[in-house]
Design brief:
Length: 139
């Protein structure tokens, strides 16, 4: 099964319906589900999503949206190795580094984020949702 790792920013785009970005991630998720592609994220994303939505809206909404996203994505593990690699990396942002090494340790090759520039240090294939959709349509 093909696997795609989703960064928290694109999941927030979907859950908060942040135009114009929400359409691309919604299409990517729909296409992935139809194609039997596994969608994954990290526990860091889930906690960040819940926290951000609770601050923007309220805790009840945050919990509801967190449950919805957990119906779509599966969670990879973050352990000592991921944290050690992230803390010793050249990534500028620690959270992005954790996401990257979480995906890498789980054998992902593709990470979807809207902040592709933050992943310049990554050895993974990094795409914005729109870029990934275009790549899939072109073959």
């Amino acid at each position: 099964m093909k696997k795609i790792f989703l960064d928290s920013d694109v999941l927030l785009d979907l859950l908060l319906d942040r135009a114009p970005f929400s359409d691309d991630i919604a299409t990517l998720i729909e296409d992935s589900i139809e194609s039997n592609v596994g969608l994954f994220t990290s526990p860091v994303s889930i906690t960040n999503i819940n926290y951000i939505i609770s601050r923007l809206e309220n805790q009840r909404t945050a919990n509801s949206k967190t449950k919805k996203i957990l119906e779509i994505v599966r969670i990879e593990n973050v352990g000592q190795t991921v944290i050690d690699r992230a803390s010793n990396s050249k990534f500028k942002d620690f959270e992005d580094s954790v996401q990257n090494y979480c995906a890498a340790e789980a054998k992902h090759t593709t990470l979807i984020t809207r902040n592709t520039k933050d992943y310049k240090q990554s050895e993974l294939s990094i795409f914005a949702p729109k870029e990934y959709l275009a790549k899939m349509k072109s073959g």
